[in-house]
Amino acid sequence: MAGSGAALRALLRAANALLLQRRYRAALAVLKGFRNGAVYGAKIRAPHALVMTFLFKSGSLREKLKSIAQATYTHSRNLAYFVFTYKGLMALQSRLQGKKIPFHSFLAACIGGWLVFGENNPINSQIIMYLLSRILFGLSRLAVEKGYIPQPKQDPFPLVAALIWGTVLWLFEYHRETLQPSLQSSMTYLYDDSNVWHDISDFLIYNKRTDSK
Q1: Whole-model pTM above 0.90?
Q2: In a 3-state reduction of DSSP, which class is residue 156?
Q3: 79-95 pLDDT, tens per residue?
Q4: Which of 74, 92, 119 is a domain's end point?
Q5: Alpha carbon of 48 to those of 62, 122, 161, 173: distances in Å?
Q6: Which InterPro entries does this chain map to (predicted)?
Q7: Residue 4: inside a domain, yes or no?
Q8: Which of 59, 141, 172, 182 has its Cα between 20 and 30 A from that of 101?
Q9: Between 102-117 and 122-146, two packed helices, what is the crossing angle to 10 degrees?
Protein backbone atom coordinates (compact mmCIF):
# COMPACT_ATOMS: atom_id res chain seq x y z
CA MET A 1 0.00 0.00 0.00
CA ALA A 2 2.86 2.37 0.94
CA GLY A 3 4.61 1.55 -2.34
CA SER A 4 1.52 2.40 -4.39
CA GLY A 5 1.15 5.72 -2.51
CA ALA A 6 4.75 6.64 -3.22
CA ALA A 7 4.30 5.73 -6.89
CA LEU A 8 1.20 7.92 -7.09
CA ARG A 9 3.03 10.87 -5.53
CA ALA A 10 5.89 10.44 -7.95
CA LEU A 11 3.43 10.35 -10.86
CA LEU A 12 1.79 13.55 -9.65
CA ARG A 13 5.17 15.29 -9.32
CA ALA A 14 6.05 14.25 -12.86
CA ALA A 15 2.71 15.47 -14.18
CA ASN A 16 3.08 18.82 -12.40
CA ALA A 17 6.60 19.21 -13.76
CA LEU A 18 5.32 18.52 -17.28
CA LEU A 19 2.55 21.10 -16.90
CA LEU A 20 5.09 23.79 -15.99
CA GLN A 21 7.26 23.31 -19.09
CA ARG A 22 6.81 26.21 -21.50
CA ARG A 23 7.45 24.18 -24.67
CA TYR A 24 4.25 22.20 -24.07
CA ARG A 25 2.15 25.20 -23.01
CA ALA A 26 0.27 25.65 -26.30
CA ALA A 27 -0.66 21.96 -26.54
CA LEU A 28 -1.67 21.83 -22.89
CA ALA A 29 -3.79 24.96 -23.31
CA VAL A 30 -5.67 23.18 -26.10
CA LEU A 31 -6.33 20.21 -23.81
CA LYS A 32 -7.48 22.41 -20.94
CA GLY A 33 -9.69 24.29 -23.38
CA PHE A 34 -11.36 20.99 -24.27
CA ARG A 35 -11.87 20.28 -20.56
CA ASN A 36 -13.30 23.74 -19.85
CA GLY A 37 -15.59 23.55 -22.87
CA ALA A 38 -17.03 20.25 -21.72
CA VAL A 39 -17.56 21.43 -18.13
CA TYR A 40 -19.04 24.80 -19.10
CA GLY A 41 -21.35 23.25 -21.69
CA ALA A 42 -22.71 20.83 -19.10
CA LYS A 43 -23.18 23.59 -16.50
CA ILE A 44 -25.08 25.78 -18.96
CA ARG A 45 -27.24 23.13 -20.63
CA ALA A 46 -28.21 20.86 -17.72
CA PRO A 47 -30.35 23.38 -15.75
CA HIS A 48 -31.84 24.84 -18.94
CA ALA A 49 -32.76 21.41 -20.28
CA LEU A 50 -34.18 20.41 -16.89
CA VAL A 51 -36.52 23.42 -16.73
CA MET A 52 -37.61 23.34 -20.38
CA THR A 53 -38.19 19.57 -20.38
CA PHE A 54 -40.35 19.49 -17.27
CA LEU A 55 -42.24 22.64 -18.26
CA PHE A 56 -43.06 21.86 -21.87
CA LYS A 57 -42.33 18.24 -22.79
CA SER A 58 -44.64 15.31 -22.28
CA GLY A 59 -43.60 11.72 -21.71
CA SER A 60 -42.49 9.46 -18.91
CA LEU A 61 -39.92 10.45 -16.31
CA ARG A 62 -37.41 8.13 -17.96
CA GLU A 63 -37.94 9.79 -21.34
CA LYS A 64 -37.57 13.26 -19.83
CA LEU A 65 -34.36 12.35 -18.01
CA LYS A 66 -32.99 10.82 -21.20
CA SER A 67 -33.80 14.00 -23.10
CA ILE A 68 -32.05 16.13 -20.47
CA ALA A 69 -28.97 13.90 -20.52
CA GLN A 70 -28.82 13.90 -24.32
CA ALA A 71 -29.14 17.70 -24.56
CA THR A 72 -26.49 18.19 -21.87
CA TYR A 73 -24.11 15.74 -23.55
CA THR A 74 -24.55 17.34 -26.99
CA HIS A 75 -23.95 20.88 -25.70
CA SER A 76 -20.97 19.81 -23.60
CA ARG A 77 -19.41 17.78 -26.43
CA ASN A 78 -19.87 20.45 -29.08
CA LEU A 79 -18.43 23.22 -26.93
CA ALA A 80 -15.46 21.04 -25.98
CA TYR A 81 -14.79 20.17 -29.63
CA PHE A 82 -15.09 23.80 -30.68
CA VAL A 83 -12.70 25.14 -28.03
CA PHE A 84 -10.24 22.33 -28.87
CA THR A 85 -10.43 23.14 -32.61
CA TYR A 86 -10.23 26.90 -32.13
CA LYS A 87 -7.27 26.88 -29.76
CA GLY A 88 -5.49 24.25 -31.83
CA LEU A 89 -5.84 26.30 -35.03
CA MET A 90 -4.81 29.46 -33.21
CA ALA A 91 -1.63 27.78 -31.96
CA LEU A 92 -0.91 26.36 -35.42
CA GLN A 93 -1.33 29.72 -37.19
CA SER A 94 0.79 31.51 -34.62
CA ARG A 95 3.54 28.90 -35.02
CA LEU A 96 3.46 29.09 -38.82
CA GLN A 97 3.53 32.90 -38.99
CA GLY A 98 5.61 33.51 -35.92
CA LYS A 99 3.08 35.86 -34.36
CA LYS A 100 -0.61 36.24 -33.52
CA ILE A 101 -2.78 38.52 -35.67
CA PRO A 102 -6.54 39.34 -35.44
CA PHE A 103 -7.44 37.38 -38.58
CA HIS A 104 -6.20 34.18 -36.95
CA SER A 105 -9.06 34.35 -34.45
CA PHE A 106 -11.69 34.92 -37.14
CA LEU A 107 -10.42 32.11 -39.39
CA ALA A 108 -9.99 29.58 -36.57
CA ALA A 109 -13.48 30.29 -35.24
CA CYS A 110 -15.02 30.10 -38.72
CA ILE A 111 -13.49 26.67 -39.29
CA GLY A 112 -14.50 25.49 -35.83
CA GLY A 113 -18.03 26.84 -36.28
CA TRP A 114 -18.39 25.06 -39.63
CA LEU A 115 -17.05 21.75 -38.36
CA VAL A 116 -18.70 21.64 -34.93
CA PHE A 117 -21.82 23.79 -35.12
CA GLY A 118 -22.63 23.41 -38.81
CA GLU A 119 -25.37 20.83 -38.26
CA ASN A 120 -28.79 22.46 -37.98
CA ASN A 121 -30.23 20.94 -34.79
CA PRO A 122 -32.03 22.46 -31.77
CA ILE A 123 -28.92 22.69 -29.57
CA ASN A 124 -26.73 24.33 -32.20
CA SER A 125 -29.57 26.61 -33.25
CA GLN A 126 -30.01 27.93 -29.70
CA ILE A 127 -26.28 28.54 -29.33
CA ILE A 128 -26.03 30.38 -32.64
CA MET A 129 -29.04 32.57 -31.84
CA TYR A 130 -27.58 33.36 -28.41
CA LEU A 131 -24.31 34.41 -30.03
CA LEU A 132 -26.05 36.39 -32.78
CA SER A 133 -27.83 38.65 -30.29
CA ARG A 134 -24.56 39.32 -28.46
CA ILE A 135 -22.75 40.00 -31.73
CA LEU A 136 -25.30 42.59 -32.83
CA PHE A 137 -24.95 44.46 -29.53
CA GLY A 138 -21.16 44.15 -29.66
CA LEU A 139 -20.88 45.40 -33.24
CA SER A 140 -23.19 48.33 -32.44
CA ARG A 141 -20.99 49.37 -29.53
CA LEU A 142 -17.83 48.90 -31.64
CA ALA A 143 -19.27 51.07 -34.43
CA VAL A 144 -19.87 53.88 -31.93
CA GLU A 145 -16.45 53.39 -30.34
CA LYS A 146 -14.70 53.60 -33.73
CA GLY A 147 -16.76 56.59 -34.80
CA TYR A 148 -18.54 54.84 -37.67
CA ILE A 149 -21.88 55.97 -36.23
CA PRO A 150 -22.42 58.94 -33.89
CA GLN A 151 -22.80 58.50 -30.17
CA PRO A 152 -26.56 58.46 -29.43
CA LYS A 153 -27.75 61.46 -27.48
CA GLN A 154 -30.18 59.25 -25.55
CA ASP A 155 -29.98 55.65 -24.45
CA PRO A 156 -31.27 53.62 -27.45
CA PHE A 157 -32.09 50.58 -25.33
CA PRO A 158 -35.80 51.41 -24.75
CA LEU A 159 -36.35 51.71 -28.50
CA VAL A 160 -34.46 48.47 -29.16
CA ALA A 161 -36.53 46.67 -26.51
CA ALA A 162 -39.77 47.99 -28.00
CA LEU A 163 -38.85 46.95 -31.55
CA ILE A 164 -37.66 43.49 -30.52
CA TRP A 165 -40.79 42.72 -28.47
CA GLY A 166 -43.04 44.16 -31.15
CA THR A 167 -41.38 42.04 -33.84
CA VAL A 168 -41.29 38.78 -31.92
CA LEU A 169 -44.94 38.98 -30.87
CA TRP A 170 -45.98 39.85 -34.43
CA LEU A 171 -44.08 36.81 -35.67
CA PHE A 172 -45.63 34.66 -32.96
CA GLU A 173 -49.18 35.75 -33.76
CA TYR A 174 -48.97 35.62 -37.56
CA HIS A 175 -45.86 33.66 -38.61
CA ARG A 176 -45.32 31.32 -35.68
CA GLU A 177 -43.57 28.63 -37.70
CA THR A 178 -40.62 30.97 -38.29
CA LEU A 179 -39.70 31.00 -34.59
CA GLN A 180 -37.45 28.50 -32.87
CA PRO A 181 -39.44 25.62 -31.26
CA SER A 182 -38.48 26.35 -27.65
CA LEU A 183 -39.47 30.01 -28.11
CA GLN A 184 -42.78 28.89 -29.59
CA SER A 185 -43.36 26.68 -26.54
CA SER A 186 -42.57 29.51 -24.13
CA MET A 187 -44.84 31.95 -25.91
CA THR A 188 -47.65 29.44 -26.27
CA TYR A 189 -47.54 28.94 -22.50
CA LEU A 190 -47.56 32.70 -21.85
CA TYR A 191 -49.97 34.03 -24.45
CA ASP A 192 -52.16 31.17 -25.71
CA ASP A 193 -52.60 28.94 -22.68
CA SER A 194 -53.54 31.96 -20.55
CA ASN A 195 -56.67 32.34 -22.70
CA VAL A 196 -58.07 28.94 -21.68
CA TRP A 197 -59.50 27.73 -18.34
CA HIS A 198 -62.45 25.75 -17.07
CA ASP A 199 -62.46 26.26 -13.32
CA ILE A 200 -60.30 27.50 -10.45
CA SER A 201 -57.94 24.52 -10.78
CA ASP A 202 -56.68 25.36 -14.26
CA PHE A 203 -57.02 29.10 -13.69
CA LEU A 204 -54.69 29.39 -10.69
CA ILE A 205 -53.16 26.02 -9.83
CA TYR A 206 -52.54 24.24 -13.15
CA ASN A 207 -51.94 25.53 -16.63
CA LYS A 208 -54.14 22.84 -18.18
CA ARG A 209 -56.54 20.48 -16.48
CA THR A 210 -56.03 16.76 -16.99
CA ASP A 211 -58.23 14.62 -19.21
CA SER A 212 -59.85 13.03 -16.16
CA LYS A 213 -61.51 16.32 -15.24
Answers
A1: no
A2: coil
A3: 999 999 999 999 999 99
A4: 119
A5: 18, 13, 24, 25
A6: Pmp4
A7: no
A8: 141
A9: 160
